[in-house]
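agent: user wants the structure for Fumarylacetoacetate hydrolase family protein from Ferviditalea candida. delegating to structure tool.
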Amino acid sequence: MSKAKIKLRGISQYHEVDVNPADDTVELNGKRYSVGRLPLDSLISGTIYGVLLNYKGAFAALGDAMFEAPYKGEPKAPVMYIKPANTVIGSGMPIPLPADVPELEIGASLGVVMGRTATRVGEAEALEYIAGYTVVNDVSIPHDSVYRPAVSQKCRDGFCPAGPWIIERDAVADPDSLDVRVFINGELRQQNTTANLIRNVPRLIADITEFMTLSSGDVLLVGVPEGAPLVKAGDRVRIEINGVGSLENTVVHEHEWVMEVSL
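agent: tool returned. relaying tokens verbatim.
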């Protein structure tokens, strides 16, 4: 068992609990529960920063395009974007599919939760600034361009499921060697590892805090692997990250999602 924090829907404070990522169970008030039986909300309280093209395969898939205008070369710093607060939902909550969109792209990512203010942090001490880790689904409407902010594709309501908990930093021996798997309706559709990151977790923190401050509660999405699977309404998505946890959500039509969250 590992120490973690969870938040139940409708309750403002969080609970410190023991969890077992291997079998998706939580010990709460002396009882053991499966994750699916708890109404979990997301614990994310800070700003969520995503990083593009941080998997070797995702960058390689661009081919020569990165060396053409407007950039004409590899990125000199992390290519970042923000997932605003309206996108965040918890484990088990539905993902809305907009009426004019046939499919959504699933973005499996390790979420690195900062534990204290970080400015100009060196790689050697970067992990000391981490509070813990969580599983994040960086949902987006499929799009081709990486040259301009994809706000309308990545920042829709409900487009950032996260959870089921934030597991403590020391429960994860090496964040740069974690297997990441995506299952759609029980079928394995994507598999990768954080060992394939271009900038590993310490370097990512060091490079980002070189030009901006990260605060306690902020979350870094380390990147989405190449070959992100597509889903439609009715599909159930499960993202597993070894030692961190499993995040499950079902895609529903947007009008059904609006009715549910309004209850």
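agent: one observation worth passing along. The longest strand covers residues 160-168.
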